[in-house]
Amino acid sequence: MILPIYAYGMPVLRKKAEDITPEYEGLSTLLENMFETMYDSSGIGLAAPQIGLPIRLFIVDGSDIEDDPSTKDFKKIFINAQILEEFDTAWEYEEGCLSIPFVRANVKRNAKVTIQYLDENFVQKTETYDGMAARIIQHEYDHIEGILFTDRIHPLKRNMLKKKLNNISLGLVNAPYKMKFPKK
Description:
The protein has helices at residues 27-40, 131-144, 155-160, 162-169, and strands at residues 5-6, 45-47, 57-61, 75-97, 100-118, 124-130, 179-180. It is of the alpha+beta class.
């Protein structure tokens, strides 16, 4: 089932998400719905807060990204993730977000990340990623920490985007996928 993407301005996007346990009801269905929603929205990552759930869960699939070996077969589920280290030379790249349609901006992120998480079977893993895989993880991880990519851009650029962001929070955007907006 395709779920609505929660738009910029929804309070859940600003909350630090809570851990879940293996007893979390309906997890396998939720994961199926998240992947279906992400693909329908042409995304490469989706965090639970973006569909209204304040839980530490995000999914990624960057395997269609060309010219970056870090994303080959990069389809994963991250539960209760904790970034242990962000390191190596930071680099800028233009990012966007399903919760903030039609807004893109350069974000500076470290080239490598070490993350500890549980997979869909609640098996703990600690892995290091680089390149676009690291960037995708850092972006989605920010969502479970209540941070949006617009928080990481230059204040002048953020100020220039103020009207667009306000319009999104008012529902004045026509995204090509289902969205849920703050109540007016």
